[in-house]
Design a protein that fits this description.
Mean pLDDT: 93
Low-confidence stretches: none
Radius of gyration: 22 Å
Amino acid sequence: MDPLRSIGAVASSGMQAQGERLKVVAENVANAGSTGTSPGADPYQRKTLAFEEMVDRDTGVSMVRIAALGRDQAPFGRDYDPAHPAADAEGFVKTANVNPLLEMSNMREAARSYEANLNMFETGRRMRGQMLDLLR
């Protein structure tokens, strides 16, 4: 594989990984205020992503991919609301272990990483076009 083509492959893998990250962040934010549905039931548990390096056997190019989709093991929040249908015997309701501030930070980082990979992809595409123009 030529170097300019490998730029596109690397950038594409980065955009795919960051796109998946944005999906997970969106799901976490959407469920941030959830509670259990019955007394003592667990609410939504925050999802996490882990990335890993993947080396293409044919080209030797290092790319990124999702290694694992996991669940955050942080404890659930507890709100005192004895009137809530999911309240336990003590009147506490478990709440999702999602921190909206952390999720917004993750969203911003993923969006910027996606944009950086997109810029790299476009730069590679322009360089390929310039090379073809020079060869004409």
